Structures are given as C-alpha cells and as structure tokens.
Amino acid sequence: MARVYMLANVLPGKDRDIRDTLRGINGVVNADVITGQFDIVAVLEANDINEIFTRILKKVRKIRGITRTETFIAVE
After folding, report:
1. Would you list the DSSP string of 19-33?
2. What sign results for the dihedral spanned by CA atoms 3, 68, 19, 51?
C-alpha cells in the first residue's frame, strides 16, 4: 500500500468546498482544512505510488480553485 500526503493552497473562501470535493475522490482517505502555510491536507492511498500519481492526482489537478500543491510520499 502506498500513501501520499498532499498539501494544497486554494483560492480564498474555497477551502471547505475543495475539501469536500477531495473527500469524494476514490483513493483520498481523508482531507482536512488546516491552519498555517497551506489550506488543506489530504491523505491519498492506492496499491502503489504509480497509481496515486496516474489516477488520483490526475483528478485532483482538475479541481478548480487549487492554486498550488506539494506532495510527500510516505516511506515507512
């Protein structure tokens, strides 16, 4: 099982809508609005890392209102 933590910045006022959209994507285990430098953190899981990047993140990139993302691959 592969896991990625994705941090995102979004347009003002869009944080809850985008969080809810992320939660509806198959492979997104959880998404929360957070404080700090980023607006949202999401946990993505799939059978392997390639599946995360080719299938799940492809859907995430289509969400309007996300201005920036950073992804962190869990190694252990």
Report:
1. HHHHHTSTTEEEEEE
2. negative
Return all residues near 58 (Cβ < 8 A) that are at least 6 apart: none
For 7, the domain range is 2-73
Q: Give the per-residue pLDDT at 55.
A: 87
Q: Residue 21 and residue 42: Cα distance in Å, rounded?
A: 11
End-to-end CA gap in the chain: 11
0.85 exceeded by the pTM? yes
Q: Which helix (H) or strand (E) is 2 found in, with range?
A: strand 2-10
In tens, the pLDDT along 53-73 reads 998 888 998 999 999 999 999
DSSP 8-state assignment for residue 1 = -
Tracing tokens 């939660």 back to the chain, one arrives at 23
Total number of domains in the chain: 1
